[in-house]
Task: structure prediction
Amino acid sequence: MKVRVFHITLLNIFLLFVTDALGDVHGPNGTLTVSYLSSGPGQPDGYENASVDVKLALLNCAGELHIAVERVRGSVKASDRYWFEGKQVPASAPPPNAPSVEFTGTVFHQARELGRFGFVGAWAASDSAGLNCFGGNTRPVGKFKDWGDQAAPEKREQFIRDLTIRYNASPKQLTNPAIHEAIRSARAKAKQEAEAAERERRAKERQAEEQRKAQEHKEAEAQERSKREAATGAGNQAYASGDFWGAGTAAQSPSGTAGKAVRSADGRYYSQGSDGQHREISAGEYQAMRNREAQERQKLADEETQRRNDAIVQRAQADQKRQQVQRQKLDQEFDRKMAVLSGSYYIAEAARNARGNMEAASRLQGSYASAEELEADYARRMRSIEQESANLAVAQRSATNAAVEYNFGGGTAAEQSLGALTGMLGAMMQNAEREKQEERARALLREEREQKLKEIAARQHAAMLEMRKGFLAGFPDGGVPLSSHKVPADELYFFAYTFDPRTIEAPKPNVVLTNTFAVARRSDGTWPFKHVINGEIQALTPGQNTLMGYYESKAMADDMRNAFQRLATKNGFVLEEIEYAGRPRSGAAAYGGAAADTNVQPDFWAKPEGGGKKTKPGGSDDFWK
Result:
């Protein structure tokens, strides 16, 4: 029998600490099974196991994402074991057809959390007129406009099909008022029967006590009557033999008489001393001694009666004391179990909070501006998971001890040893489940961290790309002035950079940067062609060259070149510097002087003196630059 109790208790402890079921539903429609919390020792009233099916649908309701639910009729499943006020009772009534179904959940698009919902309290899932926007059993999740291009009207149906619902089980037990009423009625009837049996037992005890006292009274009266009859008979005999005091017989003699006061046959009175010798005494002394002997006999009779009465009282007091001790033990056991039950509620609440906090810590909330910010929140949540796992371990140990104390605390040493073994096995199962839940939370957090890091890297890459494009756009291609531009300076300054646009997304794209170089006006008043300068630079470093300038002072060109260097480094470019001599003035006279420039190339867009138009010479010069 004890082995059977052990298995039942171990099963109850196991069911007591099974974590809330989690589940996922993919797509716009589905059916989920909501499991109620398992009831057991130290838990609120309810079925040991119960569940109910719920249909759900994700809907586009006027630009908002809603979730609609409907309880499936006839889908309630419950075990045949029920717990009421900490004790297991048979489920004497069928489970309710339409119980309250409470659960919460989160809607995800891939790894992105869109919103949360809760069907609790007044919004608990129930029967509805259909899974539509107006069925009454709906809760909003969020607005499509908050989710970017994915929520465009033409994409919403596919967007909804790609969603995932992750839900948490009901936070309470499934109760059955019919069972409660049946138990209360049975208990009231049993109480009435027990009270009637107690009244009958007490009446029988009173009747037996009265009969015993009556019998003792009769026995006392009989003894008293016997004494009186004996005294009367002795007196009559003495009168017949001449002994009026009833102290002896005529045949007695002093030498053969035993006793303290006797009368001889010849009418004389004697007293026997402590030495056994007799001495003659007077009639008065004889009568006084006889009176004292009668008093002593009466005293002995009274003392015997008192001893019997005291024994009866002592037995009654002992019975009363035993009953009082038994009641005290029962009251102490009741108080002990009630204390365990009252503490178990808070222990179970702490365990539920620890599980909920661990689940919440496994989610990375919001967006992060940098990987550093993400890593800091990740480390904080990992510590929180570890702390909540420790809190859950403490709550589980306390709950195990409470369950063992409730079932075995008031038993014998052997039963308590069995309880210790039960608690040890229960703790092993709880630790395994807790470690599994902790690892699941850590894995989920690591998965979300990797996803968030990818998102941050993508945003940073896009931002860097935009910054690089903006940087290059801020240093556009320049050119050499024409002679018609009336530039007052005879020498202009430039710098150039060479960059392959196809490498702009590389981690460290390469840019070749020239020094600041001068270009002088030729003696005929024209400037060297841009394509000629670019050709000379491309001979030093092949690639797409960008000419920066012109600048009328070297200081201005140097400032712009320094700004280019600083911004290029800030945007992740790697600079390679080369030297280009440029085309400075070297001994030639200024424009309008006597000396002639031996390296003169005609400016076909400038007008010669006399208003004639220059013609394009033969060759491969690019005259459009």
The longest strand covers residues 50-61.
